TrEMBL record:
GO annotation, biological process: 2-oxoglutarate metabolic process
MF terms in GO: dihydrolipoyl dehydrogenase (NADH) activity; flavin adenine dinucleotide binding
Other information: The active site is a redox-active disulfide bond.
Residue ranges of every copy of the Pyridine nucleotide-disulphide oxidoreductase dimerisation domain listed in the record: 357-466
Keywords, alphabetical: Cytoplasm, FAD, Flavoprotein, NAD, Nucleotide-binding, Oxidoreductase, Redox-active center
Protein name per UniProt: Dihydrolipoyl dehydrogenase
Paired cysteines (S-S): C49-C54
Domain FAD/NAD(P)-binding: start-end pairs: 5-338
Family: Belongs to the class-I pyridine nucleotide-disulfide oxidoreductase family.
EC category: oxidoreductase
């Protein structure tokens, strides 16, 4: 007889493990199934984010930033370090340690919250007369468990170029790009999105010549136009080559090199020869092996699980969250949906506000934004007022030696409600939280301007940008 649970979560990424913990906190008997393991077969909960995404990439970004600082910026602080050497195996090893700490932390949280964890692949195997669902777990041993509610949180996987499969040795997804055994002399990146820019930045800092090819005509079109222009200027100054508006031809791969023919935005025929190629052209929902047909779970024409605004699928008591459903593929979006679904199952009113989900690119300078861009608001013919403040005029940024970028706040021209905040510069990923809070409470630019910010801090740039909305900045 199979074990009966109130809630079974398939997938232990940010959406899944958080949903499981929250459901358990609300008194439910919960199981979470995850197939990710290391080479020895030990479980590695945390999904793409923890294992080959957010966490390891930030670890490498931090290490490579230290290397960059030691090589190029310590001298201006009066620090002489001599001949700086890179021990890549140690750097990669530190990344792996950080990942394992997060894996172990999730397993600890499962035990703490009395969530039963199953290491293996979970799939639907049928529906009982009482409305419960049978879930088969295929791990070191095969077993079947039963659930009143099922939350699918199976995430996404990298999209490959047609005819060019990932081998994770020469043609790399985000996974292989995190563990290149030696710094390539020349590295190509197809796709100037978050993953392409972050991983391109890592290997450029470590010594690779990096060329990024982007099909879209505009660089970082998802960002505010001013932010995108500032970012491209900064990346170009660092040595990251970015070409937009390109059309990729048939890629040729040999044992020693990869040749990428492409047509530039001006119609010129070019050819890029690289040692390694990172392909970061987006991600697709992962439903492989879920056996959705066994219960009739509906997918759309792009492979996403179809859900309503509350993450309900077409099946009673089956829910889906995170990358496997509509909306931005962001770990924090998945977490919020996981919490909301757990609370809905418990009879509460979980809520996710898609209008205030922040986005971050962890390059140097960092880029972060929430709400709408100036170009989007103008396209809507919305009456707005804009204030910005450069980090060049911020005392803390000067002391840090990092004055690139600015804070930009967009508010409604009449009500002063904050409609969007766009930051490029030091610690943008942390500064954006204040903007999210203000926008959640339908706050005004004046609210930010009237809040006392500690001095000297980078957050003062937020206050000054808010003051600038009303043309009364004090330090610029």
């Amino acid at each position: 007889m199979s074990t009966q649970f109130d809630v079974v979560v398939i997938g232990a990424g940010p959406g899944g493990y958080i949903a499981a913990i929250r459901a358990a906190q609300l008194g439910k008997k919960v199981a979470c199934i995850d197939a990710w393991t290391d080479e020895a077969g030990n479980p590695k909960p945390g999904g793409t984010c923890t294992n080959v995404g957010c966490i390891p990439s930030k670890a490498l970004l931090q290490s490579s930033e230290h290397f960059e600082q030691a090589n190029h910026h310590f001298a201006e602080h009066g620090i002489e370090v001599g001949n700086v050497k890179l021990k890549l195996d140690t750097l990669i090893g530190r990344k792996d340690t950080v990942v394992k700490q997060n894996n172990d932390g999730i397993q600890f949280l499962f035990k703490k919250n009395k969530v039963t964890f199953f290491s293996g692949k979970g799939e639907f195997s049928g529906k009982a007369a009482d409305g419960s669902y049978s879930i088969k777990v295929s791990g070191k041993k095969e077993e079947t468990i039963t659930a009143s509610h099922v939350i699918v949180a199976t995430g996404s996987q990298p999209r490959a170029l047609p005819g060019l499969a990932f081998d994770e040795k020469q043609v790399l997804s985000n996974d292989g790009a995190l563990s290149i055994p030696a710094v390539p002399k020349k590295l190509g990146v197809i796709g100037a999105g978050v993953i392409g820019l972050e991983l391109g930045s890592v290997w450029r800092r470590l010594g690779a010549e990096v060329v990024v090819l982007e099909a879209a005509p505009d660089f970082l079109a998802v960002c505010d136009t001013q932010v995108a222009k500032e970012a491209q200027k900064a990346f170009t100054k660092q040595g990251l080559v970015v070409e937009t508006g390109v059309k990729i031809g048939e890629i040729k791969q040999t044992a020693k090199a990869i040749t990428i023919p492409y047509t530039t935005a001006k119609g010129e025929e070019q050819s890029l020869v690289v040692d390694k190629l990172i392909v970061s052209i987006g991600r697709v929902p992962y439903t492989t092996g879920l056996n959705t047909e066994a219960v009739g779970l509906q997918l759309d024409d792009r492979g996403f699980i179809v859900v309503d605004d509350n993450c309900k699928t077409n099946l009673p008591n089956v829910w889906a969250v995170g990358d496997v459903v509509r909306g931005p593929m962001l770990a924090h979006k998945a977490e919020e949906e996981g919490v909301a679904v757990a609370e809905r199952i418990a009879g509460q009113h979980g809520h996710v506000n898609f209008d205030t989900i922040p986005s971050v690119i962890y390059t140097s300078p960092e880029i972060a934004w929430v709400g709408k861009t100036e170009q989007a608001l103008k396209a809507e013919k919305r009456e707005i007022k804009v204030g910005s403040f450069p980090f060049l005029a911020n005392g803390r940024a000067r002391a840090l030696g990092d004055t690139t970028g600015f804070v930009k706040i967009i508010a409604d021209a009449k009500s002063d409600e904050v409609l969007g905040v766009h930051i490029i510069g030091p610690s943008a990923s942390e500064l954006i939280a204040e903007a999210v809070t203000i926008m959640e409470f339908k706050g005004a630019a004046e609210d930010i301007a009237r809040i006392c910010h500690a001095h000297p801090t980078l957050s003062e740039a937020m206050k000054e940008a808010a003051l600038a909305v009303d043309k009364r900045a004090l330090n610029f």
